[in-house]
Amino acid sequence: MKAFLMYAGRDFDIAAELPAAAKDLTQDLGLGLVFAAMAGDDKFLREVAEKGVLQNLGAVEDILYRQAVLRDCQANEAVVRGLYKLAVETIEAERRQFWGGLSNSPGYLLHRSVDVLQMFVGVLRRLRKTAEEAGGKFESAGFRRFFAMLIEELSDEYFAEIERHLRALRFRGGVLMSAALGEGNKGQDYVLRQPNADERGWFGRLLGLGPQAYTYRLHPRDEAGGRMLAELRERGINLVANALARSTDHILSFLKLLRTELAFYLGGLNLQAALAARGQGVVFPLPAAPGERRFLCRGLVDAGLQLSMERQVVGNEVKGNGKNIVVITGANRGGKSTFLRSVGLAYVMMQSGLFVAAEAFTADVASGIFTHFKREEDATMQGGKLDEELARMDGIAEQLRPEAVILFNEAFAATNEREGSEIARQIVHALLDARIRVFYVTHMYDFAHGVREARAGDALFLRAERPGEGERSFRMIEAEPLDTSFGEDLYRKVFGEEPVPAPATAA
Questions:
Q1: How far is CA 311 from CA 34, 275, 298, 306, in A?
Q2: Above 80 in pLDDT, residue 381?
Q3: Rounded-to-integer distance, Cα 80 and Cα 139, Å
Q4: CA nearest 301: which of 319, 283, 320, 288?
Q5: Which of 104, 125, 160, 377 has its CA 20 to 30 A from that of 36?
Q6: Looking at per-residue confidence, does 228 or 292 come out higher?
Q7: By three-state DSSP, how is residue 322 classified?
Q8: How far apart, in Å, do the first and last CA atoms of the chain sit?
Q9: How far apart are CA 85 and CA 96, in angstroms?
């Protein structure tokens, strides 16, 4: 049995390695706040959230598959949480039975496996009942396949056969087995046998009349003989004990996978509830095929920032279809970095099958999502900040593939503007030539102006809006870059007076 709720035809592998960019994505985009909202204090939910969100889905059909399953979870939350709770409680009950004894003998293994399988039968009956009663309320391909599988494979005949085998495996009438004599008259080829049906009439059974047989009875005080018979019994039931243990492991594996895959969607429900508590709505994005160069958003916010604030975060509307590079400029503390994080989060959440904190969002699917954000000074660095930035860019370049997305935040600004602009220009042009989409927040006017001249039809320029002198709306508007960083605003804020004009210099 397979759950297949994360992928249409394969299991979700929680043990899979995360992409090499996962650490930077988590740090730069503030994903820790998103993971915390998805998981609460549950370490397992946190692990699943991280793996599920950061294992990038590169196909439109995979994204739509998860979206449909998550919609079903939203519409039938009580049922889904009930399934998850059932899986968790069963796994915990099995674990307690495992620690109830540490013997590896076939007899103990068989006894434990019979008890566990008996418990699993009750759980499987509850799963089938849920499928019969609630399955019709689900519309996604993932849940419909899942419930149909439960109804088909967990039939009444299946349960009747399991119960019959479990009764036989308790060996209330003793163990019947055969053996052959080997070299030195040692026993070999021990095989457990199914007892023949008792064909005696009621009168014969009442009188205890049985067929003739050779019988050997141990003396009650023959401890050595008792140990020998116990050893023979262990040999006879060994194969059956191992087979039954594999059966219980198969069912346990199914329940663990079910718990893992449902945990991802429960994390999504928790995240939606946390955003709703702060007045933030969500929307399922419309993924486009890789290379279509689609990017449209309305009311897009930084979900991590919204989770950390009680008041409503300002959303942005951007129309960037057909653009390979988006350059964001404007005054300090105008919301540029926040907007960039909102874009990165939207891509990451879309490509994990989740919703986006926005009113509308559509983009073409990226082969990978990468970030190159400025870092604070680090005393452990072996070189300068520019060396560190270039080394980090070199590591990213090794992972980039066509149709990837990379977000730069004040990159290569650790040197003077002329050198930083030239470095940024050469790197960005190489990326664009390799069909990699770029979002770039910068104060380097020389770089932004160069992009405008070289890529006028290929670039979208956004600027942090200034409704009035010194004011911030935290919205991005479509506008050409300016040759000022509005340092006067900062001067007035600090000193409360007009700045002294710099003396004129000779040309």
A1: 17, 11, 19, 8
A2: no
A3: 14
A4: 283
A5: 377
A6: 292
A7: coil
A8: 80
A9: 17
